[in-house]
Structure formats: C-alpha cells, structure tokens
C-alpha cells in the first residue's frame, strides 16, 4: 500500500499523463485551422498587402513604401 508523499506523487503523475494524453488526442482530432493560401496566381497581391500593412503601422516611411511598391509592381 502506498503511503504519504509517494502516494501523492504517483497520483499526480497519473493525472498528468491522463490530462496530457487527452489534450494530445483532442489536438490530433481538431487540428489548428489555417488560413487558405492563394493558388499561386496572385503572389504580388500578398506582398503588396503586407507592404501596405507595414506602412499603415508606421514601420515604413512614405519614400520607402513608394520605392518598395514600385519594385513589386515591376516584378
């Protein structure tokens, strides 16, 4: 028969295994939803969208934005 602290440790290990297995099973049954990607027909649109977002957040100056946009449109 288990006594004292060792019994509590084994019970804790048991529940950690049960809960961890349950989480793993649920994660495999319900994988993380991903956003659909373009079919490869409009890759410049994605880059331009990212560029616009960076400009809107203030991470690019107006000159940097215009230069990069022109580079994307020429490619």
Tally of discrete structural domains: 2
Kindly report how far apart the N and C termini lie: 75 Å
The helix content, as a percent range, equals over 70%
Oligomeric status:
single chain
Q: Major β-sheet, in short?
A: none
Number of strands: 0
Shape category:
elongated
Q: What order do the helices and strands follow?
A: HHH
Walk me through this protein's architecture.
The chain is an all-alpha fold and 75 residues long. It has 2 domains: 1-32; 40-75. Helices cover 71% and strands 0% of the residues. The chain contains 3 helices and no strands. The longest helix has 26 residues, at 4-29. It is elongated, with a radius of gyration of 26 Å. The N and C termini lie far apart (75 Å).
Topology, please?
Layout lengths: L3 H26 L13 H14 L5 H13 L1
Helix pairs in contact: 2-3
Short description:
This protein is mainly α. It has three helices and no strands.
Describe this protein with a few key phrases:
75 residues; 2 domains; mainly alpha; 3 helices
